[in-house]
Amino acid sequence: MAEISTEAQLATFINVFPTKPRDQQRLVDLIVKAHEELIRHRPGYVSGNVHRSTDGYQVVDYTQWARREDFEAMVRDPAVAPHFAPIGELTQGRQCAYDVVYSHAGEGGTTHE
Amino acid sequence: MAEISTEAQLATFINVFPTKPRDQQRLVDLIVKAHEELIRHRPGYVSGNVHRSTDGYQVVDYTQWARREDFEAMVRDPAVAPHFAPIGELTQGRQCAYDVVYSHAGEGGTTHE
């Protein structure tokens, strides 16, 4: 479980991977494998969250790091390339660094007026 | 504060808005205004989270709903169109519905090896 908050001052990276319904599950499996075997063990890792679009055409990876530099150090490390290569053969994600500027939660969310 | 979890069984909508550095803050302000005045008051709302890319070229809106139908009911409601019109004049977002298929959090995230 991860928390989104404006107060945590984390570095958030969101990577949107376009895909096709026939490739989506394979892409999800590769990204989850990268999280399990590599990403979660890196210094500064806070959370990793993988989302599968219900239409089959997108996978979104939402990761949080203590500092932006932690993520950048991982990407620069030559040892990580083999973990990302199979993903790159399937799709090119579009990744950006983000700040959370607004976060609000309702009261449980299951209340219907 | 919002929580990302595979167990919550929420409907997650992620909307990626392309923008330009000179328009980004105005776009953020309009989206936050829509959350404050409209979205958070709708039935089934769980959370709303707005992200500003550090490069100035993206805004990502990450919302959670109890059920997918709650979001769809909001979009269909003619009363909401005026709230979204100013955003549509600035940019066309790309929105999808998602299921969270993986979520893992480290131990605080600030530990550096």
Lay out the secondary structure.
2 copies of one chain form a homodimer.
Chain A: E1 2-4, E2 11-18, H1 21-37, E3 45-53, E4 58-65, H2 68-76, H3 81-90, E5 94-105
Antiparallel strand pairs in A: 2-4, 2-5, 3-4
Question: In brief, what are we looking at here?
Answer:
The structure is a homodimer of 113-residue chains. By secondary structure, chain A is an alpha+beta fold.
Please give a structural write-up.
- 2 copies of one chain form a homodimer.
- Chain A has about 110 residues and is of the alpha+beta class.
- Chain A has a single domain (about 10-100), classed as Alpha-Beta Plaits (2-Layer Sandwich).
- Helices cover about 30% and strands about 35% of the residues of chain A.
- The first copy, chain A, is built from 3 helices and 5 strands, in the order ββαββααβ.
- The first copy, chain A, has helices at about 20-35, 70-75, 80-90, and strands at about 1-5, 10-20, 45-55, 60-65, 95-105.
- In chain A, a hairpin with a 4-residue loop joins strand 3 (about 45-55) and strand 4 (about 60-65).
- In chain A, helix 1 (about 20-35) runs antiparallel to helix 3 (about 80-90).
- The two termini of chain A are about 30 Å apart.
- Residues about 110-113 of chain A have low confidence and may be disordered.
- Chains A and B meet through strand 1, strand 2, helix 1, strand 3 and strand 4 of A and strand 1, strand 2, helix 1, strand 3 and strand 4 of B.
